[in-house]
Amino acid sequence: MTSLKRAHFAAVAALVLLVLPFVPVPDFWITQLNYIGLFSLVVLGLVLLTGVGGLTSFGQAAFAGVGAYTTAYMSTVMGLSPWLGLVAGLAITLVLALVIGALTLRMSGHYLPLATICWCLALYYLVGNLEALGKYDGLLGLPALQLGDFSFRSERRIYLLIWAAALLAAVGVTRLLDSRPGRIMRALNTNRGGGATMPEAMGASTFRYKLVMFVVAALLASLSGWLYAHMQRSVNPSPFGIKFGIEYLFMAVLGGIGTVGGAFTGAALVKLAEDQLKVWLPVVFGGSGNYEIIVFGVVLVLVLRFAPEGLWPLLARWLPARGHKAVDEQAPRLSARSHPPRGAALLDVRQIRKQFGGLTAVNDISFTIRAGDIVGLIGPNGAGKSTTFNLVSGVLPLTAGEVELLGQRVDGRGSRAIARAGLSRTFQHVKLVPDMTVLDNVALGTYLRTRTGTLRAMLGLNGAEEAQARAEAMRQLRRIGLDGQAHELAGNLALGPQRLVEIARALASDPSLLLLDEPAAGLRHKEKAALADVLRQLKAEGLSLLLVEHDMDFVMKLTDRIVVMEFGRHLMEGTPAEVQASPAVRAAYLGAEE
Ligand code: ADP
Ligand code: MG
Questions:
Q1: Name one GO molecular function term (predicted).
Q2: Given ligand 1 and candidates 197, 354, 356, 389, which is best to mutate, with the most ligand atoms within 8 Å of its CB?
Q3: How far is the centre of ligand 1, averaged over its atoms, from the C-alpha of 403 (Å)?
């Protein structure tokens, strides 16, 4: 218990940074650290947006420009307080980020980076040509920041503001990543096997979280720009152009994209290296030029090749391990939904159909599930089971037919609405967040039973609810027998346990109906047996299940009723014994094996 934790280390580092201007360190250090703090603020936004969310922006320098120019114009031309300039700058940034984000974030991956490049270039030339903003000379004579009688005129003084902002932002981003919204954000990164399907199935609007990340990153950049403007006491377009947009991204990648420590590491390394290179490279190559860009390019390639996670993870190895928060199992329970009584109508699938071009993958399939039932949906490969599953769970739109869940029409309503109506699911290809703990992955399933938003999480006001979510996650892990592995990274588990974690995550949403897509696929014999035990236990607890499965033996022992599909059609329906005895089913399976 007395061992030094990562959090203690961070606190000591923060303390050292904040007392530095009060001790006689050289002014040069302070200047350098001011820049590093300002860069870190911007890069922290990229950690969230690019590292965590997988969304690339080259436009962060432009958002810094918005913050800088707004306060410059308001304080010099209009004679208003820099604090008003801060509020106005953040407000303008917010609107711009919402507009740019809304226009591009619904589109596929490449549109955002392209849009941010355009936005950065456009702003640069606009500002450079506007008479009111002093064209390429910029605006001079900004006032120093003032708080009461205390003026942040000197570098040593504004240092305090810069580092207070950077450290608070670091705390905010750290908290956010470890919260209800953060779990969704971490699940979105397509570069790490994530995407929209799973978060949507847990009830989260992925578009909304992408937009939130984009806005938070833009606001951090804008804040950095405001501080920069009042540190320099002047602004001009050059630090807000595309070159800096690229450099910020470079800092994020070099430091370790996706980690808060990486933001500071990258900002520090680039700033310090740039200064040295600016001195030495012209000596080596002669003349003057931006030779450091060449060096950075080479370094970037080397880092991506040999340390793709950036340099921070290499440094972090020397730091004390990150302690995991204890789970308070006495925390009050999250609200539960009222489930239908055993035997009540739960799911009614009527004549659903799905066509992919000329192929009818699902051809007028109907079946019902009553509360407490375990129904199997089987058929040879390509029979249309997964498609049926996706139609019922709202991942795919129906061509025709109706789906009723608990008396409520849910066809055409999308997977978020269906999750809210009480259906939860697992995935044939496991969709866990590999670099998140098992416990956090399961806690993601409590999304619809919790409320915490981004701001609340960043301010650390979500403690009580977070404790409830974690306690619920632990309870579900115990239910499936994986509580012992709660604090391991999900990516370190074998496929069998991963499938069980997915079930626990689905259970954490307190569903009335649980859909499992090929839970036994790819499992070894022992893992299959463990899975069957869990499913039997869930059945005994009265849970309703739809089990889509290719493996007939696995389904036979577990289900009350089985629906058999072949070539998209309904082949037969009956008890396991009836299905087993059916020559038509045997022929379908034999035909498919050939
Ligand atoms: P199963 O899960 O029973 O193995 P699927 O539902 O995955 O079967 O597939 C049923 C049929 O629909 C297959 O012929 C498959 O190739 C086709 N199919 C599935 N998804 C798509 C899609 N997105 N676009 C076109 N065809 C698809
Ligand atoms: Mg399938």
A1: ATP hydrolysis activity
A2: 356
A3: 20
Q: Is the CB of 429 under 6 A from ligand 1?
A: no
Q: Look at strands 345-356 and 359-370 and give their pairing.
A: antiparallel
What does the alpha-carbon distance between residue 227 and residue 393 come to, in Å, rounded to a whole number?
Answer: 49
> Ligand 1: distance of its center to the CA of 210 in Å?
29
**Residue closest by Cα to atom 6 of ligand 1:** 384
Distance CA 568, CA 360 (A): 7
The rounded distance, in Å, linking the Cα atoms of 407 and 327 is 37
Q: Which residues partner with 147 through β-bridges?
A: 150
The superfamily (CATH) of domain 345-590 is: P-loop containing nucleotide triphosphate hydrolases (3.40.50.300)
Q: For residue 370, what are its two tokens? A: 């009553």
Map 502-550 to HEC letters: HHHHHHCCCCCEEEEECCCCCCCHHHHHHHHHHHHHHHHCCCEEEEEEC
For ligand 2, the distance from its centroid to the CA atom of residue 564, given in whole angstroms, is 13
Neighbouring residues of 493: CB distance < 8 A, sequence distance ≥ 6: 438, 485, 501
Regarding the beta carbon of 385 and ligand 1, being less than 6 Å apart is answered yes
Q: Please classify residue 155 by burial: count the beta carbons closer than 10 Å to its beta carbon, then call 0-12 exposed, 13-18 middle and 19+ buried.
A: middle
Helix (H) and strand (E) counts for the chain?
23, 14
Ligand 1 atom showing the smallest separation from residue 357 Cα:
25
Whole-angstrom distance, CA of residue 389 vs CA of residue 196: 17
CATH number 1.10.10 is the correct assignment for the domain at 25-316? no
Would you give the DSSP letter of residue 364? E
Question: Residue 89: which of 77, 99, 97, 79 has the closest Cα?
Answer: 97
- pLDDT tens sequence for the chain (594 residues): 344 578 888 899 999 999 999 999 999 999 999 999 999 999 999 999 999 998 999 999 999 999 999 999 999 999 999 999 999 999 999 999 999 999 988 876 678 889 999 999 999 999 999 999 999 999 999 999 999 899 999 999 999 999 999 999 999 999 999 999 999 999 998 877 788 999 999 999 999 999 999 999 999 999 999 999 999 999 999 999 999 999 999 999 999 888 999 999 999 999 998 888 888 877 787 776 777 777 888 888 888 788 888 889 888 888 887 778 888 889 999 988 888 999 999 999 999 999 999 999 999 999 999 999 999 999 988 999 999 999 999 999 999 999 999 999 999 899 999 999 999 999 989 999 999 999 999 999 999 999 999 999 999 999 999 999 999 999 999 999 999 999 999 999 999 999 999 999 999 999 999 999 999 988 899 989 989 999 999 988 889 999 998 888 889 889 999 999 999 999 999 999 999 899 988 888 766 654
Tell me where in the chain the CATH 1.10.3470 domain(s) lie: 25-316
SS3 345: strand
Please indicate whether residue 354, judged by its CB atom, sits closer than 6 Å to ligand 1: no
d(CA 58, CA 104): 14
